Amino acid sequence: MTPPKWTLLIHGGAGSMVRSNFSAEQDEGARAGLSTALEAGSAVLAYSGSAMDAVSAAVMALEDDAHFNAGYGAVFTYKGINELDAAIMDGKTLGAGAVTGARYTRNPVLLARAVIEHSPNVMLSREGADEFSREQGLDQVDPDYFAIPERWRQLEELKAKKLGWYDIDMKYGTVGAVAVDQDGNVAAATSTGGLTGKRWGRIGDSPIIGAGTYADNRACAVSATGAGEFFIRLGVAHEICARMRMLGEDAKLAADHVINELGQLGGTGGVIVTAPDGTSTFSFNTPGMYRGKASSAGEKFVAIYGDESA
Known about the structure:
Layout lengths: L6 E9 L8 H23 L4 H13 L20 E7 L5 E7 L5 H11 L4 E3 H10 L13 H13 L9 E2 L2 E6 L5 E7 L20 E4 L3 E7 L1 H7 L1 H12 L3 H15 L3 E6 L5 E5 L3 E8 L4 E6 L5
Parallel strand pairs: 3-4
Antiparallel strand pairs: 1-5, 1-6, 1-12, 2-3, 2-7, 6-7, 8-9, 9-10, 10-11, 12-13
Helix pairs in contact: 1-2, 2-3, 7-8
């Protein structure tokens, strides 16, 4: 079998998604958003575009969709503000860019990419990230743009029930994409609003290179979603790549091994992975994960629940 010329995987978060808890409207809306993101990324790859451009396009589409916890759909912190994190990595050059705590950039993934292309740094935070975004001429919005009523309701519910630190219902709406283009280059991008009710400037795994996002042409590209503190402790994204590069494991074996280790520590979530030869996998230990795949071999599907397959 000839490997696909290009492959794209996306996710919109992993968590407690089960059919009994989802309305038809929620199900249809999420699937439509995933399909739009697949189309955006596929359009790039089908016309010989780069993996970096493809993951940027796919994640931007998810950031603009209120069904997902990134960009427009970002959750609120405990103090009622939206703090946005994102990262992107180029497997060809190992160029990486990340931002955390950004508040005014419409599409944080573009800000993360600007860090690679227009700065000597890898990671920028908060006011500095916002200042850099303005200097780069990226699309700025008033913070009210991100303040959608449903996310506010979720914050109020969490506070009223005194549920603990944050989001104990395991709904990790982080979005991400991984791709391999027609030149065999891989890339990964991840974007999130974090956890509902997060406090003290908490930063999860999404913007941390090697934890929630990683890409290396010698192995694979990975984007993660889940209980970030555990992904950071294991360096999940890099660990998967390292197993593939050094042990010769395929994407599924490496990803399943690391997600199993994550579970043993008490962590929950999932990853999407693709290798330069077009092989790819989803791996998660939660009831569901918003996910989708498209390739030049004609594959195209989206799924939510754990019992769905291509």
